[in-house]
Amino acid sequence: MSHTFPIRVYYEDTDMGGIVYYANYLKFIERARSDWVREIGIDQNVMRDGDGVVFAVRRVEAEYLAPARFDDYLQVETITQAVTGARLVLEQKVSRGDDLLFTANVTIVCINEAGQPARLPANIRLMLH
After folding, report:
1. Can you give the residue range of the structural domain that contains 53?
2. Cα-Cα-Cα-Cα dihedral sign, residues 15, 18, 21, 24
3. For the whole model, what pTM was predicted?
4. What is the pLDDT of residues 77-122, one digit of tens each?
5. Which of 15, 43, 71, 99 is catalytic?
6. What is the CATH number of the domain that holds 38?
7. Whether residue 35 lies in the annotated active site
8. Would residue 120 be called left, alpha or beta, if left means φ above 0 and alpha means ψ between -120 and 50 degrees?
9. N or C: which end of the chain has fewer CB within 10 A?
């Protein structure tokens, strides 16, 4: 399963050198994940209120390959790598045209209201396969 999300680099996304500040790539991939989850039919508000769980990032392994700059038009690709009863592993890539700028492997888990690990709801697992 794959999803593509467009991002335009705004002035506020850049640092003093005019390139995208490193932490903003995490924001870009978060927006892409949120859009992907919504697009496949998962309502995170219903998940929280009905199932009592929310998604949380457990681990991010990132690699910065090349800089993005003000006004660049980027694409964030989200690819499902693995879905288990307790976690979701995604690969996310940020590109400018054919140039790969950033990659991340992101592990997502569910947690309950107390912040304890919880299983992914069965209906959510089915949507992610």
Report:
1. 2-128
2. positive
3. 0.92
4. 999 999 998 899 999 999 999 999 999 999 999 999 999 999 988 8
5. 15
6. 3.10.129.10
7. no
8. beta
9. C
